[in-house]
Amino acid sequence: MYFCGVVFRVSQGLEIIYNYILMFTVKVIETSTGRPVKGARVGAAFEGFSRGCTKDEYTDSDGEAHFDYDNGTGIIYVNGHKEYEGRIEGRRVVYI
After folding, report:
1. Of 5, 9, 44, 69, which has the highest C-beta tally within 10 A?
2. Residue in 30, 79, 68, 71 with CA at minimum distance from that of residue 48
3. Pick from 76, 71, 75, 88: which is nearest to 22 by CA?
4. Could you read off the pLDDT of 7-48 as tens digits, one per residue?
5. pLDDT value at position 52?
6. Alpha-carbon distances, residue 71 vs 13, 14, 32, 55, 81 (angstroms)
7. Is 80 exceeded by the pLDDT of residue 58?
8. CA angle in degrees (0–180, nearest 5) for 5-47-85
9. What are phi and psi of 69, to 5 degrees?
10. pTM, two decimal places
11. Domains by residue range for the chain, with CATH
12. What are the tens digits of pLDDT across the range 76-92?
């Protein structure tokens, strides 16, 4: 899990440190059954030259793949197929 921090200097000798976590989750559901898909290969490609792609993750028994990347606009791939395009943040559910 990646942490980003912002330091605010309130006065000389007093700083406030604000940390936040960079991550999102993709939940994969099988359309025909409505059940989570275990073992699906999930990846995301982000807009922007510097963002690139995530490392592939595999869904757990709850159908969830967790990513330690900052939120953004991009494409979610499941088992090599484009399943979603748009804002990726928090928890994104995709149906296959």
Report:
1. 44
2. 71
3. 71
4. 455 555 565 555 455 689 999 999 999 999 999 999 999 987
5. 84
6. 33, 30, 29, 15, 20
7. yes
8. 110
9. -135, 155
10. 0.74
11. 22-95 (2.60.40.1120)
12. 999 999 999 999 989 99
Measured between alpha carbons, how far is 67 from 46 in angstroms, rounded to an integer? 13
Separation CA 17–CA 2 (nearest Å): 16
67-70: list long-range contacts, CB under 8 Å, 24+ apart.
67/23, 67/24, 67/25, 67/26, 68/1, 68/2, 68/22, 68/23, 69/2, 69/22, 69/23, 69/24, 69/44, 70/2, 70/4, 70/22
Overall residue count recorded for the chain in this entry: 96
Tokens 């791939």 sit on residue: 77
Token pair 């748009």 is found at 86
Q: What is the pLDDT of residue 9?
A: 55
